[in-house]
Design brief:
The protein contains nine helices and five strands. With 142 residues, the protein is α+β, with helices and mostly antiparallel strands.
């Protein structure tokens, strides 16, 4: 079994360290905005670091009297989308000002509808290596 570990170690040492640490990305077309603009409105989403993902989840948990009382799904989704949105940069001051938004959360709320926010948060989660419920359902069927 030790040879197997050495094999994995050797493989890791041969890998391009920069390539393995690149964050996966995916584009997503917001069809509603494409229709409004008359041209494809495509954003780029990327995975987020594990520590940030964990922080977002922890900050979304509601605790009352020392017990978990629920999860603020809206906060979880908004924070995931903001952290995972590569393009456009939702923290861009000019973009915030143009849409009269004081925070990226307000901007997300102005630009996107709930289903789009949910889709984008799911994509970021998938890019982070989490399996979607749809994928789990498909695997269960097969």
């Amino acid at each position: 079994m030790e040879n197997k570990n050495e094999n994995v170690l050797e493989k890791l040492l041969r890998m391009d360290a920069k390539k393995i640490t690149e964050r996966p990305m995916r584009t997503y077309e917001v069809k509603r905005l494409s229709n409004i603009m008359g041209t494809p409105f495509v954003i780029t989403l990327q995975s987020i670091p594990a520590e940030l993902y964990s922080d977002i989840q922890n900050e979304s948990v509601e605790i009352k009297k020392g017990n978990v009382s629920g999860v603020n799904i809206q906060k979880l989704q908004f924070d995931t989308v903001i952290a995972g949105m590569k393009d456009p940069n939702l923290k861009d001051k000019q973009l915030l000002q143009h849409f009269d938004a004081l925070t990226p959360v307000q901007l997300v709320n102005k630009l996107f509808i709930p289903g789009e926010i949910s889709d984008m948060a799911s994509i970021v989660s998938e890019l982070c290596g989490f399996t979607s419920q749809k994928d789990v359902d498909e695997e269960t069927k097969n």
